[in-house]
Amino acid sequence: MPVAGGGFEQCYNAQAAVAADSLLVIADVGQAPNDKQQLAPMGEQDRRLAGGARGAGTLLADNGYFSAANVAACAAAGIEPLIAAGRQPHHPSSANASPRRRRWRTIRPRSKP
Fold it and tell me: Which of 29, 67, 83, 96 is most exposed, with minimal Cβ within 10 Å?
């Protein structure tokens, strides 16, 4: 797989899905470098393990799986996709902080008389 900074390494991209009603865990390992290319194969595994019957009714996934093709594939399979369409920063600047943010103060021990 291609790696950041250029070049290639022997790597794999592992995926796991859990069926909420049965707690069935589906796992797959591939060489696709991003998660967008892994959604359809996981859906196929879900349908195959369900015996050809309709698999999941709702899909919950993070932003790494979001693409128009994945949303269309879910719609075609009768699955409601709940896929995050964007990311929020991990450490927002203090300018974006809530004005009601709690201020902590340092409590110092009293000095003995």
Answer: 96
Please, are residues 43 and 73 in contact by the beta-carbon 8 Å criterion? Answer: yes
For the whole model, what pTM was predicted? Answer: 0.62
Q: Is 75 helix (H, G, I), strand (E, B) or coil?
A: helix
pLDDT string in tens for the chain (113-residue length)? 888 888 888 888 888 888 777 788 888 888 877 888 888 878 777 777 766 555 568 888 888 889 899 888 888 888 888 888 877 777 666 655 555 555 555 555 566 65
Degrees (nearest 5) of the Cα angle 51, 56, 57? 130
Which residue is associated with the tokens 């709940």? 82
3-state DSSP call for residue 61? strand
The Cα–Cα gap between 66 and 64 comes to 6
Burial class (CB in 10 A: 0-12, 13-18, 19+), 65: buried
- 46's tokens: 């879900």
**11 within 8 A of 21, measured Cβ to Cβ:** no
